[in-house]
Predict the 3D structure of the following.
Amino acid sequence: MALTKNKKVLDFVAASAELAQPDKIVWIDGSETQINALKKEAVTSGELIKLNQNLLPDCYLHRTKVNDVARVEDRTFICTKNKEDAGPINYWMDPNQAYELCNEIARGSMKGRTMYVIPYSMGVVGSDFAKIGIEVTDSIYVVLNMNIMTRVGKQCLDALGKEGDFIKGFHAKCDVDADKRYIMHFPEDNTIISVNSAYGGNVLLGKKCFALRIASYLGKNEGWMAEHMLILGVTFPDKTKKYIAAAFPSACGKTNLAMLIPPKHYKEAGYEIETVGDDIAWIRVGEDGRLWAVNPENGFFGVAPGTNEHSNYNALQSTKRGTIFTNVALNTDDMTVWWEGLSKELPEHCIDWTGKPWNPAKFDKKDKSTCSAHPNSRFTAPAENCPCISPEFNSKTGVPLSAIIFGGRRASTTPLVYQSRDWNHGVFIGSAMSSETTAAATGATGVLRHDPMAMKPFTGYHMGDYFAHWVEMGKKVKNPPKIFNVNWFRTDENGNFMWPGFGDNMRVLEWILKRCDENPIDAVETAIGYVPNPDDIDISELDYEICKGKKFDKAALAEILTVDKEKWSKEAEEIEGYYNGTIGSRIPKELWDCLETLKKNCKK
Ligand code: GTP
Ligand code: SPV
Ligand code: MN
């Protein structure tokens, strides 16, 4: 039975049903009874595998089709009336053509299936930040994941009332045919259509489709920001707190930084980290002239491989109940899950992510095809499970930001950390970011590409206008956060990471926050911005072997703080090529000026 009298919602559901022709329509009310019944149904049909309920209560495993394991950037479209508004780096399709194409694909696709209507809120229901979406879908997996990742149920329809507007999301898995897979966004119509996929970011429409692509477009028009950022809080020994947001590209360390456990001597001194969000931040200007951020999500869709007790204890703990695992391995000895990097010992009896028995004897770290879990396998875990979840997680106002950090996967050139000279220079640094591609999207991995503000795949409009929006936001904030860039991924000539990373990133956060003090700690001015004096990064009690007995020491630190003008001169040329050749005319003058300064500084 329909759960609302909102005519726009009823019309959208009716039109979706008329198109897809499901046998049945089920409204998701968010009740435990209904969710449990759906889990049971999915286990019976084989869509979910029930895991060991003693060790992993209320946890399930799902395997996708092998052609459907990651976001598909080349099949993700921004459909604006004018092609120029989608900009030079989004795939574009004419809205009429896109609707027609998708309607054709979706027509009758839910025959013999049930269409679920999911009312959900991005953000705390009823808060100023919150926005409501309705996703219709023929996938129980989507219902159950959305129920973890967002706030789902009748209260969202109540918040909408009789007249309220919402983001329309239509998802039909169809035949999961990769050749007919489309993820379409209509920012001018507040509409998303996804067909022929049943994987994560392609189908959990509240996440990347709504909370970044559509929301970034809304943010530009309404004066706020939707960013691919984690949000964390730091408690200092004197019990004061500061908050940081950080944008790293997909699978480049947001979940890990957001849940960081400080080194022992920091903990003993009284430092603590709390997690507000691990993937998305919605940011507004507060009355106090600062930027305030909320995490619009309600769970974590985190990368499984590499997650273990040491690298990310808090993430691992978050997956211990009420979690759906996607494309990890099944340990058949005890019906638990496994993935590469979970433990040093390999399990003897596993079914790999494709559903075949796995042979640990053939496992070769360097050959992804021998892995038991897909490199982009994920866990969908409720945020409330996280041991370090912030008390501000459900705050209606969000948290005030002291710092914004950009970062990418750069084997060379980019130092461990540096600070921009001011807001616009920070925007320039974000706009000029490059990072190596990862398994989070289909295509080759390890390829260096531009990924401005970690938003290349997620900006719902022209990238040049997006840069201009950042510059405009800077004019609106009296007390803007300081902007930094970090790189945890510098490698030596043997390809080994030169910085220990993970919990030890606390050492860099400490410097960053000292730079945000009213009386900031000194720094060295370089061609690219401010870098730390090597003495100001605490490397005490650090036991990290870079390679074959070579320990991390002051010399190693100095090396990863180096700014090589020759390399940066080439980088500046490269950025100029990207600005001129790819993004083009809509880049604001403020950023061109920063590029000129960088070029000049590198020649000095
Ligand atoms: P999305 O969910 O795709 O947006 O990714 P994310 O940015 O949250 O990435 P996540 O934290 O899950 O990290 C992905 C990968 O980066 C994992 O393989 C981690 O082991 C690795 N990683 C994270 N932090 C560090 C670090 O400080 N150093 C090194 N060397 N690797 C890291
Ligand atoms: C990412 O790829 O940045 C993710 C996973 O966070 S997905 O939701 O699939 O986009
Ligand atoms: Mn992400």
User: Anything to note?
Assistant: The chain has a mean pLDDT of 97. Residues 228, 250, 279 surround manganese (II) ion (ligand 3) (CB under 6 Å). The radius of gyration is 24 Å. The longest helix spans residues 565-583.
